[in-house]
Amino acid sequence: MVGMAEPEAPHPVTVAIERRIDADRTVEATSWMQAGTDLATAFPGFLGSGWVRAGEASDLWYMLYRFRDIPTLETWEQSPQRAWWLDSGRSFAKEVRVERRTGIEGWFDAPFATNVESRRGADSPTTGPVQQPVTSAPPRWKQSVTIWLGFFPCNLLASWLFGFVPGFGELPLVTRVLISTVVLTPIMTFWVLPWVTRMLRPWLHRRRA
User: Fold this and answer.
1) Contact present, 43 and 28 (Cβ < 8 Å)
2) Contact 190/101 with Cβ under 8 angstroms?
3) What residues form the membrane-spanning segments (predicted)?
């Protein structure tokens, strides 16, 4: 129908979980982590998951899983299958930290670990274990520069265009700022920042010699 906006594309969500595992039960923990991956694979919207140990002598284990969007992620997280799986590992696995990566964090791709063994989901073109490189977050100053590079030209252009709107300059300051932020926020979120971070990705993730 003319005039109706097209529905927004779903935004994939990556969840990173840090756990401490009883060092005397690593064999059980290995099977337990793989069982969780296998359970998640059967859920709609599943895009992949993986897990990795911080080191041979470390009790820190990291798990990543990715879903098509928030609703499919929450279906998995609230499922009785996941509740049963979590309960089965409580005697040797203690959850330390959980992070959801989407929005600005998702643009910069900052998982805990450097690489994981990943099993693809039904929505991915391939199946089976693969080695998937995962980069660490760029420094905060690089993130700030990236955001500024997107925000400054957008704000400049918007300020210039709003100058042609009759009566806009006579509005109260709060109203002008409210209107400009309402207009610019979705533009920055869905178009400008993803494009800027894609263009600057080699610089953002360049390793110091």
Assistant:
1) no
2) no
3) 145-165, 177-197
